[in-house]
Amino acid sequence: MQRVFSGIQPSGIPTLGNYLGAIRNWPPMIAGHECIFCVVDQHAITQPFDPRDLAAKTRDMAAALIACGVDPERCVLFVQSHVHAHTRLAWIFNCVSRIGWLNRMTQFKDKAGKDRENAGSGLYVYPNLMAADIHAYHATLVPVGDDQKQHLELANDIGQKFNHDYGADFFPTIQPMIQGVAARVMSLRDGTRKMSKSDPSDQSRINLTDDAETIALKIRRAKTDPEPLPADPSALEGRPEARNLVGILAAVTGREPADVLRDHEGQGFGTFKGVLTDALVAHLGPIQAEMQRLLADPGAVDAALRRGAERAAAIAEPIVDRAEELIGFLPRRK
Ligand code: TRP
C-alpha cells in the first residue's frame, strides 16, 4: 500500500475554492492508501500572519478537513509544528539543497514580490521544509495543485542528492498526483480572479460555514453576463463569470462542463443560478452541519490532532533518526 502525504496551509475556514481544488480529493484516497495529512502551520509563518489567530485558523482548517471526510480515525491528521521530525529533517535538507535550485522556484519569486531583500529567509527555504514533510514519512504519493509541481521536483532532487551523498538508497522517489485545473474556482464578483479568503468582499466567495440562505444570496448576487448559456464550453472563452459558474456546477455534480451546458443550453442565468444553488446546498449542507458541530467543541478537535501527532511521530521519528545517523550525527538514543 502506497503512503500518501499532503499538507494544507492553515487559512482558517476554507472557501469553496479550497474545497473543490484540494480538500475534496483527500477523503477518496483514504480507502486505498495509508494517508497522512498535515496542517502546515510552520509554512504559514513564512509570510505575514497574525499570531493572535494562527491557532484558531489551524484548528478551523483541521475541523473543516474532518467535516469534509478526512476521518482522523482512518488516516493520520495532525499539525506540522507538533511533530519535530519535520524541522529536524528540514535542517538537514537546508544543507543538502542548493541555492541554485531554490533560486529557480517561481513561487518564491511570486510571493517575495519586488522587495526580495526583505523577504524572510523561511520563505526562501520553504521548499526544503516541504520536502522534509514528505520524506520524513517515506511517502511516495503526494496530491497537490499544479502550482506545487516544481516543489515536488525539488523534493526529488533533494532526496536523490541525499541518497547519493550519504551512500544509501534511503529516500524513495515521490510521485505527484496533480489535481485537476478544471476545479479552479474564481471569485463570484470577478471571474478573472481566484476565489480567495483575502478578498475584502465576503460576497466574492462561498465559505464552508455558509448556510443555505447565505449560499442562495451569494449565488443570486454573483456577477454574470446578459448572454444565454451556450452549447459548447469553448464558447465560454471570454466569459469568465459564466465559465466559473458552469465549472462550479460541473464540479459539485461530478460532471464535465460540456454535460452541464447540454442541460442548460439557451437558458439565462436566472434558472441556472437556481439549479446551482440547489446543487451547492445539497453538497455543502452536510459538511456545513458537521463543521458547526466541530467548531462548537474545539477541545475535541485539539484532542484528535494530538492523537494524530503521536501517530505521525511514531512513523517519522525513526526515519529521521536514521537520516541523522547516515549524516553522522552522534545518536541521541541507543
Ligand atoms: N506548499 C503546499 C501548498 O501551499 C502545502 C504543503 C506543505 C504541502 N507541505 C506539503 C503539500 C507537503 C504537499 C506535501 O499548497
Keywords:
globular, binds tryptophan, three-stranded parallel sheet, 2 domains, Tyrosyl-Transfer RNA Synthetase, 334 residues, 15 helices, mainly alpha, two-stranded parallel sheet, Rossmann fold, 51% helix
What does this structure look like?
This protein is mostly helical and 334 residues long. The chain folds into 2 domains: 3-183 and 297-326, HUPs (Rossmann fold, 3-Layer(aba) Sandwich), CATH 3.40.50; 202-293, Tyrosyl-Transfer RNA Synthetase (Orthogonal Bundle). The chain has 15 helices and 5 strands. It has helices at residues 16-21, 27-30, 41-44, 54-67, 85-96, 99-103, 106-112, 121-124, 126-135, 149-165, 212-221, 240-253, 257-264, 269-295, 298-327; strands spanning 3-8, 34-39, 76-79, 141-144, 175-178. A 3-stranded parallel beta sheet has the order 1-2-3. A two-stranded parallel ribbon has the order 4-5. Strand 4 (141-144), helix 10 (149-165) and strand 5 (175-178) form a beta-alpha-beta unit. Helix 9 crosses helix 10. The chain binds tryptophan.
